[in-house]
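User: Fold this; tokens only.

Assistant: Input:
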Amino acid sequence: MRIVIVGAGTVGTQLAGHLIQEKHDVSLIEANPERARHASNHMDCMVLQNKGNSIYALEEAGIAKADALVCVTESDEVNMIICGLAESRYPGLIKIARVRNDDYVRLNRPDEASSRDPHILGIDRFIHPDVEASRKVLNAVEHGVMGDIISFAGTSYELGAVDVAGASPFDGLVMTGYRAVVSAESLVTLVERGHGSGAEVILPAGSTVLEKGDRVFILAKEGELDHIFRLAGHDEKPLRKIGIVGGGRLGCLIAEGLLEKTDPAESRGMAPKRRGFFSLFRGFIARRNYRVVIIEQDHDLCKKLAARFPEALILNEDLSDENFISEEQIDGLDLVITTTAQQEFNIITSVYLKSRGVGRAIAMVSSPGYAAVARKLGVDVVVPMKMVVVDSILSHLMGNSVTAVHRLGDGSINILELDTGADAPVAGKPLKDCRLPSDTLVMLVNREGSAFIPRGDDVVMAGDRTSVITKKGNEAEIGRLFNAAGGDNTARNHPPEPKSQAAAR
């Protein structure tokens, strides 16, 4: 694919790096001279120092022959305008815009009462960072904050990550003896060992030995993970009282998810009933009557929060005040979720409150690097927001066969969910004969609503939705194997180049 990315911040450069690794043709446009220079020195792609809201800059970046345009500048309006400019000249282009304003997303929701095209300015997909992060948090809460959880649509299987505790049945366990310890149908898909420069990412074999401190990713049916996590040394404790530190947009979305029976997007007029745009409650279990405490320093914001969430306790306090923590019995919380814009504060607050007796902690951070530090310090679940946004964008760029992308750990391991094409190279073959790339494992197959963990003799069938874990760099080859042979791996057909542009060349 050929992709033009406007905005060379953290999200833009992470996205570009991943796509370049997969041998896609990438062009970056960045208005800031320093960012453009840095990207040019570190990225193996065309980098233009220019404003993206110029059709001439877009055409210089190769938009006439591109398959997709991704706008991730800091301005919602600029992102949307750029997509509109591209739509006016190249309407067949996939257009993705990152936005943070709920009103813009509301404009783009489908109108079931009319036949009008809901794609405002031709934008195919809005990516809302806070909504994507809220989904991750609510999913973790649903599973007792035992570790990172990835759900697979249409199946009862989930991938959970848990740290191996010392003296647990998993400490010293050789993988050949795994079935003797865990009787449930499950699969150890990945082991992360160590931190920093000495960190290892292991796709386990029969001879692999689990050690104390390993972060183990296990695939199992919903309900079985909790038992497996206990074997790893982690006992689930009920979550009744939940504290949210920070009453901004992200904190409010999470509070809505915890307190309301309906999709928060519906309650805010952002989606039609039962088809919420954000779908925060997709798969979310019945309401559990959580007691929610929101802690916010801004007095005026606290008044708005009190009106918006009358069932929650709103505390206008500074968490750094030791007397406040003792008087309000904050250490009686079962879970704290830190959602401020300061990632260092989120990590420190999570660790400090856990030291005071808070059972579990979720911290929001900006980058994967901070996520590794937070986990090392004992934060149970860390949500790196920029990585979440990149993953969401990738899920819409990888083509017709790829329905979702999940990056694990430092981003060197990916999970792809793929639909097998009718004439895909792997269709009709046993897995052992499919010649998948090295460091690749087919971990789950969903066949007509019936999901199972496959073995080497199982045959891949057209129409299967297959979940594959692989090392970074194999995605293009895996997509080719599971997609229809010779088929277009993009979601939309690229239009012919305008005559005026062809003549100019």
